[in-house]
Structures
1.
Amino acid sequence: MRRNGPLALVFHAFFVIVMVAPILVVCLVAFTPEGFLSLPTNGFSLRWFRAIANYPEFIHAFWVSLGLGALSSFVALLFAVPAALAIARYRFRGRDALAALFLSPLMIPHVVLGIAFLRFFTSAGLGGSFAALIIAHVIIVFPFALRLTLAAATGMDRTVEIAAVSLGAGGWTLFRRVTLPLILPGVISGWALAFIQSFDDLTMTVFLAAPGTETLPVRMFLYIQDNIDPLVTSVSACVIAVTMTALILLDRFYGLDRVLAGKSGDTGR
């Protein structure tokens, strides 16, 4: 195996530092005892972590984001799995156009989508509702779920399905016991990526959220419009800690390489 040279190692180290530095700065500022954003600081304090309890709006917004991300990603997968299997298996007129249509939300700026959704849902009488948020988020996360599921379906060995059919497996049994396990890494990867996109979205959601349905990014955006204290950094640090814990557990029990790369083989664990 060819080793990286000194120049490559320096470049990689610089790249990692540039990527991680903003996260470290946010986490360090969250521990400041001052009443304003400051770094370096004279000491460390949990003052702003305790302050989160005095703002239940952040806690409520976190649960809204969590539920919205999980539900919209699950619904997106219900459409992405059959769509991916159809596109990967069959050759029909308009196949490429259909695939482009499914991926089109990636090419439209979220500001434009937010304004369009706002006008549509207001006309439909769903403005400010949680149902409108779910529908909008399903549309924007669907391409992410589709791409990874499609990659898994394209690389699937069809001979296994043919063997199962020859042994008398029906349509539902074939899908449940053969097809789904084969594409499961892509399905899980698609769900994870779709969830992250939904949980983190602000540009579109800010047009649709209303009191009671505000997501965490929207709540943080509204807070920093009127305040300059480190409370938002403490909330961000908590989200970062939860994310890192989830990634560590996911890597321990499933394997990040399978989630991020969609590998279906043995991970060597």
2.
Amino acid sequence: MLLVDDDPLVRAGLSFMLGGADDIEIVGEAADGAEVSALVDRTHPDVVLMDIRMPSVDGLTATETLRGRDDAPQIVVLTTFHADDQVLRALRAGAAGFVLKDTPPAEIVAAVRRVAAGDPVLSPAVTRQLMAHAAGDPGPGDGRRSRAPDRVAALNDREREVAVAVGRGLANAEIAAALYMSVATVKTHVSRILAKLDLNNRVQIALLAHDAGLLEETDSP
């Protein structure tokens, strides 16, 4: 994995913490987003732990650049905030989740392992918090929301139900219980939704469901 943070003490702490795990290898470190693309070319990490706020090229720009690549690594955003606009933008760009800088070491290690395995690092509670924050997302959201209904039209009825449940922040087991299907079937539907809509992870499913107004429909009396 690759560590990206402008604070050398933070990088040293993360390197010590993550380097102690037998199944995690630190292949490189960067102090600014401007260094990331070249480092990824040279080291080919599976996961990048990316600070958001850096002096030259910030983590948001670096995330958007990396996720535009065919061989994009998974990205975990490192931040001091739970759900500010910058975290939301990073998740829309395809980051697999975020961890707070004051997260206990064992949880950061677990988060890296989950992302490496293809699972997003967002709990259902955090997903719900992000959806609430997205409701007040200004600016480019208008164009995004006008396009969203056409995108979700590609889903069949069952996939649409699963997308709404993901948007509500339900875990796979909760979706399975609510929609009377097995957890394996839920995972299959999620995979199909990702493929049909060309999305990176279930966080983006939740955001698209929000943008398309699907969550408002489920909240209507």
3.
Amino acid sequence: MSDLELQSREAIQKGSKSFAAAAALFDAQTRVDAEMLYAWCRHCDDVIDGQTLGHGMSPVADAPARLEALYAQTRAALAGETPTDPVFAAFQAVALGRGIPERYALDLIDGFAMDVEGRSYETLEDLLAYCWGVAGVVGAMMAIVMGVPPDDLPTLRRAQDLGLGFQLTNIARDIVEDARNDRVYVPRAWLAELDLPVEQLTDPARRDDVAALARRLVEAAEPYYASARWGLRDLPVRSAWAIAAARGVYRQIGLDVVAAGGAAWDERVVVSGRKKAWRALEGGIVALRSATLDRLGKTPQRPALWSKI
């Protein structure tokens, strides 16, 4: 493996154990490209949040300048200029090699710009626009890495849906931690319904209300997870297995948060190794069933869900 590939693999193994495990199911080249794309996404997030591989968020005084640098470096990489940063060199290799549209790469940074602006979200639809920028578009780009043509919009919509489900789950799990870092993603209309001020999200006395919000977010994610399942039929079998496994693990996080109720924020909810293994096995079964549907010529319609694509 090249140095770029090794650094990208290290980034995913330290930044997301769940996705690293799923990526191991890809064929060799898809795994390398997915890891290089992930490393760039992770880097952009870390730069804006003042963290290292997704851990230890801290205030960033020069966030606007950092944001502009990310835009400039990304545009330069996509234009074929020689990057000086290994993360952008890896991104350039996979983006140009797989034909990732520039608009998708820039939409990711637009999502981080919402964090820099300190944007609040009044409704679920407003929140989903943010989820597109930081996760839905990642799903679309990953699908292209797996061989989905950039103009295959029906399949890219399913990939987008998986990213939206992932992000809604992440928000549910991290409500309290995010609030401690002055990040509130829960729709303000939902907070108003519970008469829950933003500053009380971290108050242990309001944990039952926070649990109700988390449950609502997890429920909102369910139709997106269901939609994403039918996009597996358009992926190579090994890629379908990897994505089905990741889908199962992330969905399990949401289920565990709901099951824990108000205790979900006593410590970070993680999926046990045993459950991950079960979800990986289940993912293989789901992928095979999806391939069977393809052979039978069945094409389930995507429900009327929010979409950017």
